[in-house]
User: Fold this.
Amino acid sequence: MNDELGNRLKAYYEDPGVVLLPRKTWVLIRVDGKGFHTFTRGLERPYCRPLADALDQAALFVSTQMAGFAFAYGQSDEYSFLMTDFGRDDSRMWLDGSVQKIASITASLFTAGFHRSYAEPGFAAFDARVFIIPNRREVERYFIWRQADAVRNSLNMLASAYYTHAELLNKSTAEKHDLLHAKGENWAKWPADFKRGRVVRQGAIVDREIPVFTREPAYLDSLIPHAD
Assistant:
């Protein structure tokens, strides 16, 4: 059936709005929880293992659906997925490289995977942003940045379990550690994934004992694909 009206509307309005990613580059998709301060109210502090496990399972689920998946790094309420199309010359990018589809489907899959694994009541929603990084060294820097954010977040979360926002205001990292020691608490003794984040690898593997990327650069280097 010739849908002349539909074809015209698509050609005039829908198709021009489609944004396609360039080929043969490193694609990042970062998924974030929406309104997670409200969703996590009342959960165990400073670290809720069931919540972290559900986020990992959501990332695993996305990894099995994402063509060109390389690895994903998770911390707090976010996961960053690295995707490439560095296979054969005729390798197709996932969802033909449509930014809108990649963002919406990744967020949908992650939300579905999370709720399939998280039994507590309430509804969590996730959004996703898609962007490219033009060279491999900058990809490394991106994940170093996200891990540095994880370290900072975990210290703040632990300190917030003992002190008010006003008591921690303008306190340096060293001062926060000193305040925790005054309470008999030691950030260094907490689980590695709470402090440094987790990595989902190809083959549905979750690594919760990852190193500090800047101290063991070979670990991160092994995860990031080289261009053809």
The mean pLDDT is 92.
